[in-house]
From TrEMBL:
<feature type="domain" description="Plastocyanin-like">
    <location>
        <begin position="64"/>
        <end position="177"/>
    </location>
</feature>
<dbReference type="InterPro" id="IPR045087">
    <property type="entry name" value="Cu-oxidase_fam"/>
</dbReference>
<dbReference type="GO" id="GO:0005507">
    <property type="term" value="F:copper ion binding"/>
</dbReference>
<keyword id="KW-0479">Metal-binding</keyword>
<dbReference type="Pfam" id="PF00394">
    <property type="entry name" value="Cu-oxidase"/>
</dbReference>
<dbReference type="InterPro" id="IPR001117">
    <property type="entry name" value="Cu-oxidase_2nd"/>
</dbReference>
<feature type="domain" description="Plastocyanin-like">
    <location>
        <begin position="214"/>
        <end position="291"/>
    </location>
</feature>
<dbReference type="Pfam" id="PF07732">
    <property type="entry name" value="Cu-oxidase_3"/>
</dbReference>
<dbReference type="InterPro" id="IPR002355">
    <property type="entry name" value="Cu_oxidase_Cu_BS"/>
</dbReference>
<dbReference type="InterPro" id="IPR011706">
    <property type="entry name" value="Cu-oxidase_C"/>
</dbReference>
<dbReference type="InterPro" id="IPR011707">
    <property type="entry name" value="Cu-oxidase-like_N"/>
</dbReference>
<protein>
    <submittedName>
        <fullName>Copper oxidase</fullName>
    </submittedName>
</protein>
<feature type="domain" description="Plastocyanin-like">
    <location>
        <begin position="356"/>
        <end position="469"/>
    </location>
</feature>
<dbReference type="GO" id="GO:0016491">
    <property type="term" value="F:oxidoreductase activity"/>
</dbReference>
<keyword id="KW-0560">Oxidoreductase</keyword>
<dbReference type="InterPro" id="IPR008972">
    <property type="entry name" value="Cupredoxin"/>
</dbReference>
<dbReference type="Pfam" id="PF07731">
    <property type="entry name" value="Cu-oxidase_2"/>
</dbReference>
Length: 471
């Protein structure tokens, strides 16, 4: 396979907003509360491509295809003809090679979201631009210390990331190894990927431009409308919850059930969270343990949510029907402590910075430190091996999802109040007219990569900045 010549990709500003949040879920409860009116198809897991002997070699083709979503066929932009493409399963220390073939009519590229890999050359390089009819071979080498958990891959083609992700260019990556932190009775649990995507239809196609993120949108799980997810009473399952939408925030709830969160954004937690609700800004992921409740069916739903006076309003919607049925199992004892944690609160800080997100909503323009994104400009330069503290401010009347590539961070405080972080994350929701303080240790890799808002409409329209790590 040959590699197409790379052309610098001109991205726009956006500061990928990541997640800071709370989680929710618990045992399912009989019909009444939150029950959907009707069940959809059975929840189907995407096909999996699994590494063997330390290597996974994948070929993904970007295509403009008609796909079935719910009761209709719509034109979409997809990998390998699927709105929910293959899940890539790898292990720490593996090598992953992806040949991306572009059969679509616009340029694209690929980002391995959240993975701790090089941002240069043929790895997670956002400056690569794959033109129609070309192909590019990506190669990622994972460190032995790559945290296990749920990640994802998607287009990062600036300034068309919003439209390409919205139209279907997003799939899951699983790094194996969470089992080693669980007690022996909980190893090898049944797993369910719960990938959250939404779509709109305009003239028979999912739109890729002039997308109204505040318009009515159909929610899907693994590309299915209100699928049925089955669990036995008392059974423990591992759910990999991932918000793969281009713009929208989910507030997930399963009435009568709690989520026992064991990993956030692909990072195993030191202490397990238990929450009734999970706030999931775009790009966020949670690995959670869920135990089946009494026999019955309950709606896994997203609650009504607003992102602020200048933001969007999302109505409540059923995502899936959870059916608890079959022979009951005795509920397993769930862990409270999990992985070791290098707490940065006590770490020496080499430098402190302020990063401010702002916007001109009337002109639909968005800024980091008062400037729109310029792919040729380095906005923040840091030294390899140092620890920095950033005060990330939101100087606007809507929430933003702050996201950083390559190196996850620890949240230190939110609006001046200390935050009890249980681990690292790569996305955090910035409160309206508020601030979040984070600390990051820049380790292993040099090169240029972005920070941005992961509301991709904001990223494409300027809310992104380049970070360069130097020796």
């Amino acid at each position: 396979m040959t590699a197409a010549p790379a052309v610098p990709l001109r991205w726009t500003a956006t500061v990928t907003a990541l997640l800071l949040s709370c989680v929710l879920i618990g045992p399912a409860r009989p019909a009444a509360e939150g029950a959907p009116a009707a069940r959809g198809p059975e929840l189907v897991q995407p096909p999996e491509l699994v590494s063997e002997d330390g290597r996974l070699d994948v070929r993904l083709t970007v295509q403009e295809e008609r796909v079935r979503l719910g009761a209709r066929k719509v034109a979409a932009l997809v990998y390998d003809g699927r709105f929910m493409p293959p899940t890539l399963r790898v292990r720490p220390g593996d090598r992953l090679d992806i040949t991306l073939v572009n059969q679509a009519s616009s340029a694209t590229n690929l980002h391995t979201h959240g993975l701790h890999v090089s941002p240069e050359g043929h790895a997670d390089n956002m400056a690569v631009r794959i033109l129609p009819g070309e192909k590019w071979r990506y190669s990622y080498r994972f460190p032995e210390g790559q945290p296990p958990g749920t990640y994802w891959y998607h287009s990062h083609a600036h300034p068309q990331a919003e439209g390409q992700v919205f139209a279907g260019l997003a799939g899951a990556i699983v790094v194996e190894g969470l089992d080693r932190y669980l007690p022996p009775p909980l190893r090898g649990l049944p797993e369910r990927l719960v990938a959250l995507k939404d779509f709109q239809v305009r003239d028979g196609a999912i739109p890729t431009d002039n997308i109204d993120s505040n318009a009515p949108t159909t929610r899907t799980v693994n590309g299915l409308v209100n699928p049925t997810l089955r669990i036995r009473p008392g059974e423990t399952q591992l759910w990999r919850l991932a918000n793969m939408s281009a713009n929208i925030t989910y507030q997930v709830e399963l009435p009568g059930t709690r989520f026992h969160v064991i990993a956030q954004d692909g990072n195993p937690l030191h202490r397990v969270w238990q929450r009734d609700r999970l706030l999931m800004p775009p790009a966020s992921r949670y690995d959670v343990l869920v135990q089946g409740g009494p026999p019955g069916r309950t709606g896994l739903r997203t609650l009504a949510y607003t992102t602020g006076p200048a933001g969007d309003r999302y109505p409540q919607a059923v995502l899936a029907t959870v059916v608890s049925e079959g022979a009951a199992l005795p509920p397993a004892r769930l862990p409270t402590l999990l992985a070791p944690f290098d707490d940065l609160r006590a770490a020496p800080v080499d430098r402190r910075r302020t990063v401010t997100f702002s916007q001109d909503k009337r002109k639909n323009r968005f800024f980091v430190n008062g400037r729109e994104f310029d792919p040729e400009r380095v906005d923040i330069r840091v030294r390899l091996g140092t620890t920095e503290e950033w005060t990330v401010r939101n100087d606007s009347d809507e929430e933003h999802a702050f996201h950083i590539h390559i190196n996850p961070f620890q949240v230190i405080s939110v609006n001046g109040r200390p935050y009890d972080a249980r681990g690292r994350q790569d996305t955090v929701q910035l409160p309206v007219r508020g601030e979040v303080v984070i600390r990051t240790r820049f380790r292993d890799f040099v090169g240029v990569f972005p920070v941005h808002c992961h509301i991709l409409n904001h990223e494409d329209r300027g809310m992104m900045a380049n970070v360069e790590v130097v020796r």
